[in-house]
Amino acid sequence: MAVNTPQAVVSTQESDEAEFEAGLARLKEIHIQLRNLRTTILRMIQPFVANHSSPEGLYDDFSKAAVTAATEIKDFRDYFQDRRSRLAFRNSAISRRNNPEGISTWRVTEHPDWLERDGEGQPTEEDGVEEVEDGSEDGQGEQDVSSVVEEFTNSHPGLKVQYNKELMFIEVVAFYSNCSDS
Question: What single-letter DSSP state applies at residue 178?
Fold first, then answer.
């Protein structure tokens, strides 16, 4: 019969901790990839909104966008269905079943860095993300959002933009347009 020495117990706890952290990192990456897939269709139809000098240019841009979208979807599916991902989901289900008390709902507001991969810094303007002050401390947030939406709408006539103040939700819809024959 094997005897659990203090070293063996510590080693097992460390390996359990490492396995737990690897599973959390895996689930976080799945969440990030899934979140990024929400913009796939918008990125695919972007070539239809942009002005093209010829139908061939539109076709080339749309083809590239479609290939990129297909690749992102395939990569997500492969990552999601990988053995390590299934193990992380199984372990989380076992943990919830064994310890159902104290599990709270995850809220994005409690984790502002949830979209960052480990080892990454804050997104920059080079990544297409701008830091915007909302003015919420001085009560100007809603007015600023409305003016930003209006400015965006005026500078993008091919897009329909609706702002729902109650839900704090902005909907942007692209209209299909024909290529200009310049």
Answer: P
What pLDDT score does 119 carry? 64
- The answer to whether 174 touches 49, Cβ cutoff 8 Å, is yes
Whether the pLDDT of residue 78 is over 90: the answer is: yes
- In sequence order, what are the beta bridge partners of 161? 172
Alpha-helical regions (H) of the chain? 6-37, 40-49, 55-81, 83-98, 141-155
> Residue 164 pairs with which residues in a beta bridge?
169
d(CA 106, CA 118): 19
CA distance 148 to 133: 12
Classify the phi-psi angles of 18: left when phi > 0, otherwise alpha if psi is within -120 to 50, otherwise beta: alpha
Q: What is the token pair recorded at 125?
A: 């303007």
pLDDT band of 116, cuts 50, 70, 90: confident
With beta carbons less than 8 A apart as the criterion, state whether 179 and 55 touch: yes
d(CA 142, CA 164): 11
For residue 135, pLDDT over 80 is answered with no
Q: How many CB atoms lie within 10 A of CB 26?
A: 20
